[in-house]
Design a protein that fits this description.
43% of the residues lie in helices and 14% in strands. With 305 residues, the protein is α/β, with parallel strands linked by helices. Helix 5 links the parallel strand 9 and strand 10.
């Protein structure tokens, strides 16, 4: 059976519906662990990796680049990375972006980046200047397409207007904070994505591990993820109950169900989710083929409202 693929807007790039996040690589997952995770993801049909120059100040990019080279699979993978959070090259000034993209290319061992995100908005730099710099990278062949992460809806629209008015390459993808228990995206930003036909790659798709179902009280939050503690309470209990039911129905993990719900949402192309072990990868990959029933999707949505 051919691998499942989804288009990134009109770029010609086609990706697996689960975007493997590289946040742990070179930090909580060492090189050997990262290679095992990447091997498992590739074996499951995955071809879409997400990283940033700010993850370990380039450590994640370096690990991914070493793995791509060691497996000779550069051409098989769509690579997304971000600029703006490296300690030596913070922000979105023209000279910072130019230096950062070259550094990312070196670490990744590639001659191009498929999706290059502005990691965070930088209002100290005129957006027109940022738009022009990113567009010049497309013209130079260093990046294939432009993305924006953590931008407000009105700023995304402004960048798109600038690109149209100045005949620049426009962003085609956004990376918002969106999952079953973080649904603010469904307002203004989701409307912009739908109207403009943007590809959407939500990050923290498993809510810092809460949607994996392993954090159900304060003690578990302290052990597994202090960030997940914010979701404990009546609403969180409802969400976990709905996840438990669907997971039991399909004999899969809660993580798989949570990702499948996100994949099924309008405008979403490929949620970003990380893993530290090959066993965790299996649950992520399975989400690409899990068809939740309309009743299950409605139950999850209702529980998380």
């Amino acid at each position: 059976m051919a691998p499942i693929r989804r288009a990134i807007a009109s770029t010609g790039l086609e990706v697996f519906p689960v975007n493997l996040g590289g946040t742990p690589f070179g930090r909580s997952a060492d090189r050997q662990q990262a290679f095992e995770v990447l091997d498992a993801y590739r074996s499951g049909g995955g071809n879409f990796l997400d990283t940033a120059d700010g993850y370990g100040d380039g450590a994640s990019e370096s690990v991914i680049g070493a793995w791509l080279t060691s497996r000779a699979v550069h051409d098989e993978f769509v690579i997304a990375t971000k600029v703006g959070k490296h300690s030596q090259l913070p922000g979105l000034r023209h000279e910072n972006i130019l230096a950062a993209v070259d550094a990312s290319l070196r670490r990744l061992g590639r001659d191009r980046i498929d999706v290059y995100y502005a990691h965070y908005d930088d209002e100290s730099v005129p957006l027109a200047d940022v738009a022009e710099t990113f567009s010049s990278l497309v013209d130079a062949g260093k990046i294939v397409s432009i993305g924006v992460s953590n931008f407000r809806a009105e700023r995304v629209e402004e960048w798109l207007r600038i690109a149209q008015d100045e005949h620049l390459h426009a962003p085609v993808a956004i990376q918002p904070h969106y999952n079953l228990v973080e649904r603010a995206y469904e307002g203004e930003l989701g409307a912009v994505a739908a109207k403009q036909g943007l590809a959407v790659m939500p990050y923290w798709a498993l809510a810092s591990g809460f949607l994996a179902g392993v954090v159900r009280n304060a003690a578990q939050a302290e052990k597994h993820s202090e960030f997940a503690a914010r979701y404990l309470g009546e609403r969180g209990d409802r969400v976990l109950e709905a996840l438990d039911t669907a997971a039991s129905n399909h004999h899969v993990t809660q993580s798989t169900v949570a990702l499948a719900w996100l994949i099924a949402q309008p405008t979403v192309t490929a949620p970003v989710a990380g893993a530290r072990t090959p066993e965790q990868v299996a649950g992520l990959v399975e989400a690409a083929t899990l068809d939740l029933t309309p009743e299950e999707l409605d139950a999850l949505s209702a529980a998380s409202r």
